[in-house]
Design goal:
Blueprint lengths: L5 E6 L3 H14 L11 E6 L6 H7 L5 H13 L4 E3 L9 H6 L4 E2 L2 H12 L5 E5 L2 H6 L1 H5 L3 E3 L3 H12 L11 H16 L4 E4 L16 E3 L1 H13 L1
Parallel strand pairs: 1-2, 1-3, 3-4, 5-6, 5-7, 7-8
Helix pairs in contact: 1-10, 5-10, 8-9
Length: 232
């Protein structure tokens, strides 16, 4: 029987991360025997949404109006829930939810439940994320574990891997951003991190579990797993 839940994806931040999120939905959905067994998914990939980090750090153009436009589009399309494959964008989630009747899933809450259930004795997690997410400290706000970030030098490497001319947002997911992220991740492990969290949705495009001696956690894969388990 075809699934009735319609998943909305508020995407484009960036487009490659949105495509990866959709691929995760396809791959992580269980008990698939034909096309009709998959979720119906409506994706609004809206890369013209102003940059969230620029808005938070430098008072750049607010993304809120564009985000609300996408939420309303997904509402009109008949979506039953909305997922946002952008960790920094979650800064605006309460405002968006207050203006929408459709449930907007919070990836931070899903991540926290995962850590508490699977790793109850874990004390410290290392987070690689944008400067914007780090400034508003969404991870410490939502997670019960101690959160540590890279020092200034290694944080610059993370930002270079994401935003640099040879970074992920410029279409490069090979050796250069991978090496920068590995260096930052290994630094966090040296500082006592018992897991590495991909705190920006672009990060998992250029690095993964094979690069680290502790668990590498992608919140977007956890969010997809939550959707599959609760809405399949």
């Amino acid at each position: 029987m075809a699934r009735q839940t319609v998943i909305g994806v508020l995407g484009g931040m960036g487009p490659a991360a949105t495509a990866s999120f959709f691929q995760n939905i396809i791959q992580q959905t269980t008990d698939i025997h034909c096309d009709q067994d998959h979720f119906r998914v409506v994706i609004d990939s809206h890369p013209q949404i102003p940059d969230r980090t620029e808005a938070i750090l430098h008072k750049g153009p607010s993304p809120l109006d564009a985000l609300m436009e996408s939420v309303q589009l997904l509402e009109r399309a008949g979506c039953d829930l909305i997922a946002i494959p952008c960790m920094t964008c979650h800064y605006y989630i309460d405002t968006l939810q207050a203006q929408s009747s459709v449930k907007i899933l919070n990836a931070y809450q899903v991540l926290n439940r995962f850590l508490e259930n699977k790793y109850p004795s874990m004390e410290k997690v290392g987070v690689m994320c944008t400067d914007g997410t780090r400034k508003i400290d969404l991870f410490s706000h939502h997670l019960s574990k101690q959160v540590i970030y890279p020092n200034r030098d290694y944080q610059e490497k993370v930002m270079e891997a994401i935003y640099g001319p040879e970074g992920i947002k410029n279409g490069h997911v090979g050796t250069y951003p991978n090496q920068l992220l590995k260096e930052a991740g290994h630094h966090l492990i040296d500082e006592g991190a018992q897991a590495i969290i991909a705190g920006c949705t672009e990060i998992e495009l250029a690095t993964g579990q094979a690069d680290y001696s502790v668990e590498f956690i992608d919140p977007m894969k956890l969010l997809v797993d939550y959707i599959v388990k609760n809405y399949q």
